[in-house]
Amino acid sequence: MAQQYKIPQNLDIEDKILGPFTLKQVLYLVTSGITVYVLFNIIGISNFPLFLIISIPIAVMTLALVFVKINERPFLDFFFYFLQFAREPKQKKWAKSTKIKTFDVTAKLSEEEQADQKKLAQMAKRGVVQSQLSQMATLLDTRGWVKGDIGEGGVAGRIAASSDGALEPKKLIQEGEELDDIFSDIEGAVKNIKVVAQEEELSERLKDILG
Questions:
Q1: Is 21 helix (H, G, I), strand (E, B) or coil?
Q2: Among candidate residues 85, 114, 145, the one where a domain is terminated
Q3: Does residue 156 sit within a domain?
Q4: pTM, entire model
Q5: What is the tens place of the pLDDT at every residue in 131-173?
């Protein structure tokens, strides 16, 4: 059974530090309370109506910052978005630039690279590349054997790479004959290679001793 992992959710939710209030909300309330208290000591004792006119907007703004959310976003974010909307122009016009940009080739190919590109383009036009890819695909699908339309004569047989890189039929088979897997004796081939390598190493040592 696949192991289950918990995906973190609501990463933008701030931690509550005092009841249901976050750190920002607590700071808003404390700042507003201190401001109203100072205004009351300065203005409220002598002129209470003026104190109410000044303190009520402060209290309303504080309550909005603490409790009001619009589209699950804090009121402060909405307030900044509103100021940005009011400041930017409501209509924008697109003016076509009169300056024409020119692009130049900064890296140039060498003569050898250009010749290689031309050669590949000519081979692609003649279908040489596509033909060789098709033969390689047939070789992999048949595990080294092929039966059908491969080669110029359309004969069936084992495929081997010739000296020029083209794929040609090498060993013909009869109709209905069972095909052997040429990759079945990989271990034997590896052992033969190791034996040959050991013989070559011994011969080199004998040459060093006798020489």
A1: strand
A2: 85
A3: yes
A4: 0.37
A5: 666 777 777 777 666 555 444 444 444 444 444 444 444 444 4
Residue 109: pLDDT band with limits 50, 70, 90:
confident
Which tokens in the block code for residue 156? 């069936």
Is residue 5 one of the residues assigned to a domain? no
Nearest Cα neighbor of 58 from 25, 35, 90 is: 35
Structure confidence at residue 115 (pLDDT)? 83
Sequence-separated (6 or more) residues with CB below 8 Å from residue 51: 39, 40, 43, 44
Beta-carbon contacts of residue 17 (< 8 Å; ≥ 6 apart): 23, 26
Residue 110 lies in a domain: no
Range of the domain at 68: 16-85
Specify the length of the chain in residues: 211
Angular region, 177: left φ>0, alpha ψ -120 to 50, beta rest: beta
Pairing mode of beta strands 16-18, 21-22: antiparallel
Q: Which of 85, 115, 140 is the last residue of a domain?
A: 85
Answer whether residue 7 is part of any domain: no
The count of domains in the chain is 2
Return the number of other C-beta atoms located less than 10 Å from residue 112's C-beta.
Answer: 8
Q: Which residues contact 129 (CB under 8 A, 6 or more apart)?
A: 120, 123
**Per-residue pLDDT band at 174 (split at 50, 70, 90):** very low
